[in-house]
Design brief:
The complex is a heterodimer of chains A (about 400) and B (about 325). Chain A has 8 helices and 20 strands. Chain A is of the alpha+beta class. In chain A, a hairpin with a 4-residue loop joins strand 4 (about 35-40) and strand 5. The radius of gyration of chain A is 24 Å and the shape is elongated. The chains are: A alpha+beta (about 400), B alpha/beta (about 325).
Amino acid sequence: MIEFKLPSLGADMDEGKLLEWKVSPGNTVKKGQVVAVVDTSKAAVDVEIWCEGTVFELLVAPGDTIPVGTVMATLLEAGESPLAPRAGRGVGGEGPGPAHPLRSPLPPAGEGVIAGRRRISPAARKHAEELGVDIETVVGTGPEGAVTLADVELAIAAKVRLPKTAATPDKSAEMRRAIAAAMSRSKREIPHYYLSEPVPIRRATEWLAKVNEGRPITSRLLMAVVQLKAVALALKKFPEMNGFFRDGAFQPAAAAHIGVAISLRQGGLIAPAIHDVGDKTPEQLMLDLTDLVKRARAGSLRSSEMSDPTITVTNLGEQGVAAVYGVIYPPQVALVGFGRIVEQPWVENGALTIMPVVTASLAADHRVSDGHRGALFLAELRDLLQQPENL
Amino acid sequence: MKMTYREAIRQAMHEALAADPRVFLMGEDVGRYGGTYACSKGFLEEFGPERIRDTPLSELGFVGAGIGAALGGMRPIVEVMTVNFSLLALDQIVNTAAALRHMSGGQFSVPLVLRMATGAGRQLAAQHSHSLENWYAHIPGIKVLAPATIADARGMLGPALADPDPVVIFEHAQLYNMEGALPDDWRCDITTAAQRRAGTDISLITYGGSLPKTLAAAEQLAAEGIAAEVIDLRVLRPLDTDTIAASLRKTHKAVVVDEGWKSGSLAAEVMARIVEDCFFDLDAPVARVCSEEVPIPYAKHMEEAALPQAPKIVAAVMMVLGK
């Protein structure tokens, strides 16, 4: 029996609300298949599964808010037969226990409860109203998953324990809180150091102009793609900038999955990954970036895009600032920033010239790397951007 | 003072007969035999045949005679052997006794007390074992009592006789041999329900012969860490909804235990009132334990299986609590 648990889709996520199941009991699933849509405080995310099997039982009902790690469904491996009775009360101690006591067991299929209204006792509903708790966020543990008074009280206790309130479904406030939590953690835990380097960008600009010549607007490459690819290539020589710091140790990542900071129209930002940036052509990266931005703003990101970034790149140049010194998104260990392209006096080969320059910056985790390596990384990035045709 | 339920009934009648010359006892076998359940043993000798009257096997006749006596200023206690047989007298009770005050514009009172045994558990089969309390609790114009304790057996007759309207008292046949201490303050009202055990987790609402079973269930539940409150309705008409609601507001959950059949039962009425008055206090669906919907069987094991029992009550509570 395989247990499918709610994955953490980022350092700022400790619970999620199931919006929709994309599979039903009896369906076979493949690795990477989207099985559910889960609402985090940032976005509705298509959650993928990373094992193969046949869905046996769905344990969480749409509308339920559950902590990260909760078993959401069980699956049978190929050839496995369902020996165990359906999850339910009275089977205490048998098999792997639930990951969290706040499971909401569903009645056996066929009783049609899932399709109907959620079971919420009148007293629980009234109590939640009085205390300003959103009853839809309360997990039911009563008979057949009913939300009872005790569940409401538990939810209130949880609210008091955590310095956040789940009472209002105000999306932008929730995102603000999520960002606040992740960034506070970053500044609390990560000893940042900052470096910056002015990077002449004339060659890249000229190369882009040449490449884009004759192309329709929709397939033209942007400077952002050039920068992403350069960062990915630089990371190959500086693996200490690419990976995660977890449980007191650095875990380098094999590939560069670069989180791209995307500001959202309703406010806030999100930094989902473009996978394997180092192995992709600029054309492919352009397609990926366009698609990612579109889906991030539409709220249809995949769970792997949320949880996989190994480093983040932010480009505030578009907003007109000369340079950006970012806050690392834990558990990542570095963030690369690009400012706007500024034409400035520049000495080249002993002569004064006007040069388009972009300020590249690095915020890095001093637990993992030192300024010396950070400086070499930025120098490598600068040099790579001088040979755009090799990207 | 320790005594049986039977003795408490006997003492209550003895007191009434001794205190008020208008009081007399009438019914099948109440005189020479001393009462089917021996509640009037020795009365014939003590009070004489004028006041302790054996009647023919004719419920319609002697209940009607009792109503006439009450209209004429007497305070009759009419004993009907079981509620099953009282159906023969329903016309007198429902069409006459219950209606006369209203039909006469308040000119006539019928201060009649009707006592009858009810309930199963003694292998007397379907014609002697049914619980039809709710048939009477349905009727405006009469009061219906169900003493379930020694104190109520002793205390309820006095206020019933003092009441200007017909009062029906149901004595569950299985309670007569119940023994217990009669408290000093046994005098009681005939208007309120009583809390027999305090608890916070669930309200068990019952009456009559089911009270001891419900208390036994509450004791078992306590061993499981569940604090069940037990409410004894005592008065089946008019129902004391306030006491029920007060308990529900504390526990938010209820199981109603009623030896009547589920369909159209008193339990159904109690549940309806809970939903009417306490809907927003409910934390779980209200459940009930009633008799199986069959005429009460004769065979002992089948009779036991047909009736509410402590394990069934415990199971219902567990279901409501989701355990």
